[in-house]
Amino acid sequence: MPSVSGLVNVVLMVLMWMGGCQASPLRAVCDPRVLERFIREARDTEAAMRSCGGSCAVTSVYTVPLTNVDFTDWEQKDIEGQVAEVQVGLSLLVQALVAVRKTVSVSPISSLLDSNIINIQSLIHIIHSLSSQAQPLTYLEQSAQTHTHSPSELLHAQTNFLRGKVKLLLSAACRTLGS
C-alpha cells in the first residue's frame, strides 16, 4: 500500500505538470514552425483545389481581407488596431472557407478545408488573447477587403494573409512576450 507522502508527491507532481501546461496560447504560435505549418497547409489545399478539376470547380463570390501590407501604415497603427484588422481578416477567411467546404464533396479536399478552418479558428483564439478590448463591430465594415471568385483564389489570399499581416502581428507579440 502506498504511503500518504508518496501519494501527495504524485499529486503535487501532476499539479505542477498541469500548471506548466497552462501557458499563454501565444507561446505555442511563437514557434515559427507553427505558423509555417498553417501556411504550408493552405498552399497544399490551394494546389489540391487547382488539381481537383471539375468536381471542385465551385464558382462563387468570397469576401476576403486585402493581403497587401503598407508597412508605414501598419507600423503607425496601435496594437489594438492591428489585432482588430487581423481578427476581422481571419473571420472573413473562416466564413469563406466554411462556404467552400459546404459545396465540396471530394473527401480529401474536404479534410484539407476542415484543417484550414481549424487552423484559422486557432489563430483567432490566440489573437483574441492579444486584445484588451472587444473590437467595435464597425471595424468589420471599415476593414480592407476584396472579393475572389474561386476557392483556389480564396486559399491564395489565405496564404498571403498568413504570410503578411498575421506573421507581422505575431512576430511583434512574440518579441514583446520574450522581453
TrEMBL record:
Pfam families tied to this protein: EPO_TPO (PF00758)
Keyword Secreted belongs to the record = yes
Citing just one GO molecular function, the answer is: cytokine activity
Which top-rank group of organisms is this from?
Answer: Eukaryota
**Does this UniProt record's set of keywords contain Glycoprotein?**
yes
State the GO CC annotations: extracellular space
Q: Keywords for this entry?
A: Disulfide bond, Erythrocyte maturation, Glycoprotein, Hormone, Secreted, Signal
Look up the signal peptide feature and give its range: 1-23
Q: Where in the cell is it found?
A: Secreted
A biological process term (GO) from this entry:
nucleate erythrocyte development
Physiological role:
Hormone involved in the regulation of erythrocyte proliferation and differentiation and the maintenance of a physiological level of circulating erythrocyte mass. Binds to EPOR leading to EPOR dimerization and JAK2 activation thereby activating specific downstream effectors, including STAT1 and STAT3.
Q: In its UniProt entry, what is this protein called?
A: Erythropoietin
